[in-house]
Amino acid sequence: ECLISLRGLGKTYITPTGQVRALDGLDLDIADGEFVSIVGPSGCGKSTLLRMLAGLDPYEEGEMRMQGHPIQGPSRDVGVVFQAANLLPWLTVRQNVELPLRVGGRHANDGPSVDTLLDMTGLGDFGQRYPYELSGGMQQRAGICRALARNPRTLLMDEPFGALDALTRERMNLELQRIWQTNGKTVILITHSIAEAIFLADRVIVMSPRPGRILRDLHVDIPRPRT
Ligand code: ADP
Ligand code: ADP
């Protein structure tokens, strides 16, 4: 079953120094429940692709569908995590995680409660704290909780662990794997680390920068480590 379907997706940025072709005729199908990593050199269009999937970037060329419907803007069924957690500093961790629920309400098929999310990511005792009181890894975990709060079917992540040290990053990988395994979500993860991509994903998409296209689409067929 195809959850996400892209056909001939293109994107050109107009800059003061000329035009930049960021994506060029991209075709991609992603099945429900798949874990897809996207790798490729800097500037190959990974972030552009993710922003477009998240409905954050307008698109002019091609077709983007999610569950058969054109993607026309942010969806409550999609959670997004960027490199920086971007927590609101004047709200507590819990209030940050609850924010999407206040804005958009919960789904009919409720997922884990905010408490469960915080516990699951080791933040159970930190809900009343403010972001500046937490380590970078903990803030990023709070950002992931926030992205999961509305129980989205799809989780989009752009270098979510890029700013973390190696050990924390490894822990976050296990965390993410657990979330994916226990919640049956579709995950699309941009990463600079091929090791991370292969460790986590069913499928690794390699993009090429000249211009934003898919160079390789690899299925990872190695036993998954148990967590
Ligand atoms: P990646 O995430 O793989 O590094 P990006 O999607 O960020 O690639 O960028 C793809 C290309 O589009 C790059 O050449 C980048 O400089 C350009 N680009 C990205 N965002 C913008 C923007 N807002 N304005 C102008 N050019 C951009
Ligand atoms: P991570 O970035 O994965 O949280 P750290 O080494 O920064 O890794 O923290 C490890 C653990 O130490 C955390 O899970 C938390 O229990 C505790 N810790 C770290 N920073 C703080 C803090 N500012 N306040 C309270 N506990 C903290």
Automatic annotation (TrEMBL):
One of its GO terms (molecular function) is ATP binding. Transmembrane segments: none annotated. Residues 4-227 form the ABC transporter domain. The keyword Membrane applies. The keyword Lyase does not apply. Keywords: ATP-binding, Cell membrane, Membrane, Nucleotide-binding, Transport. Belongs to the ABC transporter superfamily. This is ABC transporter. It comes from Corticimicrobacter populi. The lineage of its organism: Bacteria, Pseudomonadati, Pseudomonadota, Betaproteobacteria, Burkholderiales.
